[in-house]
Amino acid sequence: MFPRTLAVLFGLVVLAALAGGERMARAQGTGIAPRASKLARIRPSEDKTHFVREGTNERIVIWGFNYDHDDAGRLLEDYWREEWATVAEDFREMKDLGANVVRVHLQLARFMKDAEHPDEENLDRLVKLVRLAEETGLYLDVTGLGCYHKETVPGWYNDLEESARWDVQARFWKAVAGVCKDSPAIFCYNLMNEPILTGGDGKKDWLPGEPLGGKHFVQRITTDLRGRTDKEVARAWVERLATAIRSVDDRQMITVGVIPWAQVFKGAKPLFYAPEVCGPLDFVSVHFYPKAGKLDDDLAALRVYEVGKPLVIEEIFPLPAGPEETGAFIEKTRSHVDGWISFYWGKTIQEYEKAGDLKGALVSGWLRRFRSLSPSPPPSDRKP
Questions:
Q1: How far, in Å, are 12, 83, 133, 166, 189 from residue 282 at the CA level?
Q2: What is the pLDDT of residue 31?
Q3: Where are the domains of the chain?
Q4: What average pLDDT does this structure show over 184-192?
Q5: pLDDT on residue 198
Q6: Nearest Cα to 367, choosing from 339, 348, 340, 341?
Q7: Distance CA 238, CA 15 (A)
Q8: What pLDDT shows up at residue 378?
Q9: What CATH number belongs to 42-381?
Q10: Facing residues of 189 across strands?
């Protein structure tokens, strides 16, 4: 045979062997087949004041992007099969912008075929995403149980009562953690984006309120307290899902990304990070959008979430405050915050600038500002 033909055949054999190894590892319950990686796992420091690389005292500050949808509003699972090259390019672009973490938002309906059975095809795709993160030198904040597009949430899931719904959520997390557990690229498992309890109009709806940009980012964990306190329900839910994860993965960190009610209602106290609730959680994740002209109030609201665990601002963007005020907020919080995660929607700074519209100007300006604030900015952004 010609040398090129031999090389092609040899490559196919190697790829087949690697694929077989991945699937065998999955079948044997060992998660991702071990592979050399330049990443070290991230852990809370011994005194719980910051993050370190596992096995060292080397501090690491979390800096990155929410990769929740693209510029057209498509969720990751909508295009990661047919447009994998786009995903890979986006990861490289986020890395070039100074990121060390990417937050991905997994939709429950894409990972559970029914109440009992995970979707193996999308679990395989998740394994591929973890590999991409390893190769790019990025960590993943894996946020789960998304129901962002209400119209795609299965009827069988909406019809479940609380206990059965939690059972499905536990199976989701057991399946996801089962394929991610061996990778050092997993920064954390975020149980759910902005969970709330019951209350208000339409309290029987699991996805309350009007959508934001066509998406439901907030989700209830119960529609009936049944005589329980808020803290009792929150504690039971956190323990249920954390136990499911810990049954297959006892190494990766667990958190919950919450709305900072202390920013909305003066004097409000954390629910999911109350002492009675947050035991299984390794660090605090709060979603903080600074208000214009309210820097001191925002800083006071953030202090409520200093509970003796590392603190990450898992969502931040210059609305309603502008880029300068939002940047000033980041600077003022560096002494006690251990990470900031903004947003990346699949377009570069240059592409936004080329658009020539208000959105393009806002996002491109913020990406430049955020990049310059990175603890490890690209050389071109470092101050002399």
A1: 42, 34, 22, 21, 10
A2: 53
A3: 42-381
A4: 99
A5: 85
A6: 348
A7: 40
A8: 54
A9: 3.20.20.80
A10: 142, 254
